[in-house]
Structure formats: C-alpha cells, structure tokens
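ugh ok fine here u go
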Amino acid sequence: MEESKTNCDFCGKNYLNSTAEDAFGRLEHSLSYTAANTFKYDRWHTLIVSRNHDTLHLTEDEIGDMFKLAQEWFQKVYSIESMYTCPEMIWDAMPKSGASQVHTHLQVSLGYDIYYGNIERIRQGARLYAQMNNGKNYFNDYVYVHQALGLTISIGNVRIIIHLTPIKDLEVMILGERLEKDFYKALNLIFRVFVDDLNEFSFSLGMHLPPM
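structure:
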C-alpha cells in the first residue's frame, strides 16, 4: 500500500495537475474531492476521490464524506440538466476488483431516466410486484422475509441483509431510506468484517439512489 502512494495521481495536491474538472468545475470537501472521468460511460460521470489513499483503512467519517459529496454532485448536475434523474455509484476497491487506481475512489453517474442493468430490472420488478399485490412495497416485503429467517442486522433504520439470491459469493445488501449516519455505520461495519475478519482485501460495491 505504501509503495502505491509513490507518484499517485490522487494523493496530496497531485490531483490538481493530474486530473480534469467537470464542466462546472471541481467540488471539494476536507476529506474528498471530485475529478472528471477520462473514460466516461455516460454524459454525466465523475469520480469521488477520498483524500485517504488507503481504501482498506478508511474511517466512517471518510466514507460518509465521499457519499455526501456524491449527493452534492448529483444535485449540481440535476440543476444543470434536469432530464438526468437516476443516480448510481460504483466502488471497486483494489486492482483485483477492477480498480484502475489503488487510491480510494468512487465512480458516480446520473443517468437519463433509467438505471443500468440489474438495478433497472429490480426497479421494474418492484413496480410490477406492487401492481400485482394491491400496491404492496416489494422492498418492505423483501426485508420482512429475510428478517423472519434471521438474515438481517438493523442499524437504526438501515438493514444489512445476507440475502437468499446473491449473484456472487460473500454478497451483502444494505437497504436504507436515505444516505445518512446509520448507512455509513453499516457500510463501515461490513468493510471491517471483510478486511479484518475475512481477510478479503478487494471488493466491489454498487449502489443506486431514488430518482432525483
């Protein structure tokens, strides 16, 4: 990890010269900042970069700060082009997961009225479920089934779910109504279990928020 800090594009003040800004400029917090993605997969796609190089030893505050900055970026983009409404985030940690840089960073994008892949499939499925079941909320029922089987952990209003239909091994789901302190606490807990207890040093996270 220490070796990878040498000549890191994101460390210290290097990012000011080695990364581009979005069309509306760069957003910065004390613990994170934005950097325009060189290889965009959508019109609005950027990086949220932590000021902590070491992904495996982030604090809860550092995790929360990245997600708060992501929400600010979504709002900024939406204020410019309100037809882009579907916020998503991807976090590939360490090269084995597909990360191009060791330094901690999220990929965030705001899609045009539709999410990508499995997330959009779940959203459409939830709508159909409500139509076929007198308006019942798919996600509430999903949580209820897993609670009945003892497969959830509650942190405030957030649920950590060891769910029944994972796509990959060691898959964990977090459901919450909004990004706030309990969500960051749950995410930090999962990371610490992966790194400290399971010795899993590479992982991927995918997340979507409700439409703007």
